[in-house]
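Title: Comparing notes on inverse folding

I've been comparing how different people in this forum approach sequence design from structure. To keep things fair, I'm posting one structure and asking everyone to reply with a full sequence. Here's the target:
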């Protein structure tokens, strides 16, 4: 490459979400000239959070979805955080041109920061129980890394992000580097204590999350401050109290002077050079006028979010790789997995009418997995964790909806209620896949993605186990009027809505059964790295975003060493 050539960088990072922001931070901090490409619009921290400090009565529809939202965006409006105050961070359904061979709700946010502005911020470390589960219980493909490989990078990420939580000493949910913690309310504490009394294999803890219950000088230097427990995070936080690319990694990278950001730019494909056997750059399309441009670099990191990264690689065709970059084994786009949220329980909790709580805490109570950890469950593979919370509604049971009587009712809290949900591991199978349409294009001329991802009998068996165990726990701790739900059957919940989709470009030992090696390099194109959810060999039971960040930091530092040694 001619160093005088226009649009030439050391590194190109595609996607500015949680993992892309971390790649940009790591490279620029070490002096590498880095281009960060985002297909969506520019969003600057604080400046571009138009609803962050507004009260409900300052919003035209009191922060509710309108009929226009529901009819015009029936897919994207299903997401739990989609409201009048947050819809600027979502794309419209008409911009989501894809084919649902099986029902799949693809949640996307096209802007600088991506879905890091919208995530639920739950951060648990994976353990060897998850990294080793596919091999131990014979599903998927063996991870080429274990907890020891990632532990120092978890610490590296956590110290920068700022994690709220306790050090709980649970082997299958290793302790994080934490700063402060949020607290259980009185009823949650009672439930946790009673679970501890009745069960030896499970423990309820306050959730670990990327909201600053306290902060260190590291977060102060980023211009961030403590969480105010407003629970308005998805509007964009003017305090920087929750971690996002916009409030943390991207501004940090900008301060180095080594970062160039290009927004409203869609990466069409990765260019491959037959003679060098390396990628030379990426081809892009302007989101405004559809003009094209090529950017070149020595190293390319793909962090466009799981399914978009799959799309880019599938569309990166050449004489050497007619089926997509690095796809000699035909597995690109295969083994997509996600989290199983089907099971849910609700109950009343009698007593404690003299107690209430203050603020809107940004996390729940979590119970680390206890099935398929030490021994195999008889009727399903994979593990699940449990999350629950206890709360009291106001005005519950009031027949009035306006006026003095309604206002009086709002001063009286109702009964304590408990809500409990599962987060289960969907086993990666060959049939769950994405591929490109041969005849349908989107408005930018790119092949539309075909989604063929669905639930299996294993997911149903896991849900039934959760419902049985959850009801037993709630009965033992004293809950009453317990109700159970299959959210797929009862509420039409489809795969994708949990926004924890992973896979398609999985890591592994063997190029015949995987696409990436232990350092996230394509086996067959060593200067292309994938470190977003697409790289995951399995989905585990715990929230994936912290692992995305740690994997990215590890791979970026490995790539830097390879660059310095002239191997890339």
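Reply #1:
Here's my take.
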């Amino acid at each position: 490459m001619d160093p005088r050539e226009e649009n030439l960088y050391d590194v190109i990072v595609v996607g500015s979400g949680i993992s892309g922001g971390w790649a940009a931070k790591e490279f620029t901090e070490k002096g590498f000239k880095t281009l960060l490409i985002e297909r969506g619009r520019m969003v600057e921290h604080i400046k571009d959070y138009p609803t962050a400090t507004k009260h409900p009565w300052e919003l035209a529809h009191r922060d509710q979805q309108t009929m226009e939202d529901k009819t015009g965006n029936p897919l994207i409006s299903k997401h739990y955080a989609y409201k009048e105050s947050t819809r600027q961070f979502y794309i419209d359904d008409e911009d989501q041109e894809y084919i649902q061979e099986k029902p799949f709700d693809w949640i996307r946010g096209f802007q600088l920061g991506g879905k890091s502005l919208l995530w639920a911020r739950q951060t648990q470390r994976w353990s060897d129980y998850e990294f080793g589960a596919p091999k131990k219980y014979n599903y998927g493909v063996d991870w080429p890394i274990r907890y020891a490989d990632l532990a120092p990078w978890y610490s590296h990420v956590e110290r920068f992000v700022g994690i709220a939580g306790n050090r709980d000493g649970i082997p299958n949910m290793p302790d994080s580097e934490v700063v402060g913690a949020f607290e259980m309310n009185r009823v949650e504490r009672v439930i946790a204590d009673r679970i501890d009394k009745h069960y030896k294999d499970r423990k309820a803890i306050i959730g670990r999350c990327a909201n600053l219950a306290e902060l260190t000088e590291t977060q102060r230097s980023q211009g961030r401050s403590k969480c105010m427990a407003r629970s308005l995070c998805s509007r964009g936080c003017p305090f920087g109290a929750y971690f996002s690319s916009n409030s943390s990694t991207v501004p940090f990278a900008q301060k180095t002077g080594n970062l160039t950001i290009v927004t409203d730019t869609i990466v069409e494909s990765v260019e491959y050079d037959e003679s060098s056997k390396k990628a030379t750059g990426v081809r892009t399309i302007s989101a405004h006028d559809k003009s094209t441009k090529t950017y070149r670099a020595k190293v390319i990191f793909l962090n466009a979010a799981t399914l978009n990264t799959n799309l880019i690689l599938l569309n990166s065709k050449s004489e050497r790789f007619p089926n997509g970059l690095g796809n000699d084994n035909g597995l690109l786009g295969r083994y997509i997995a996600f989290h199983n949220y089907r099971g849910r329980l609700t109950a009343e909790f009698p007593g404690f009418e003299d107690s209430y709580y203050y603020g809107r805490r940004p996390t729940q109570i979590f119970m680390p997995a206890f099935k398929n950890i030490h021994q195999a469950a008889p009727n399903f593979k994979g593990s699940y964790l449990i999350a629950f919370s206890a709360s009291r509604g106001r005005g519950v049971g009031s027949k009035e909806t306006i006026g003095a009587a309604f206002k009086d009712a709002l001063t009286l809290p109702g009964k304590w209620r408990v809500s409990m949900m599962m987060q289960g591991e969907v086993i990666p199978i060959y049939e769950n896949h994405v591929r490109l349409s041969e005849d349908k294009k989107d408005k930018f001329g790119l092949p539309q993605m075909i989604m063929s991802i669905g639930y299996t009998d294993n997911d149903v068996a896991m849900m039934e186990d959760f419902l049985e165990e959850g009801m037993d726990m709630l009965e033992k701790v004293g809950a009453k009027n317990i109700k159970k739900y299959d959210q797929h059957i009862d509420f039409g919940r489809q795969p994708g809505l949990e926004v924890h989709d992973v896979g398609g470009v999985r890591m592994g030992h063997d190029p015949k059964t995987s696409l990436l090696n232990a350092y996230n390099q394509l086996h067959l194109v060593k200067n292309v790295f994938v470190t977003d959810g697409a790289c995951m060999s399995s989905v585990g039971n715990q929230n994936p975003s912290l692992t995305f960040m740690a994997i990215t930091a590890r791979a970026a530092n490995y790539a830097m060493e390879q660059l310095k040694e002239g191997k890339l």
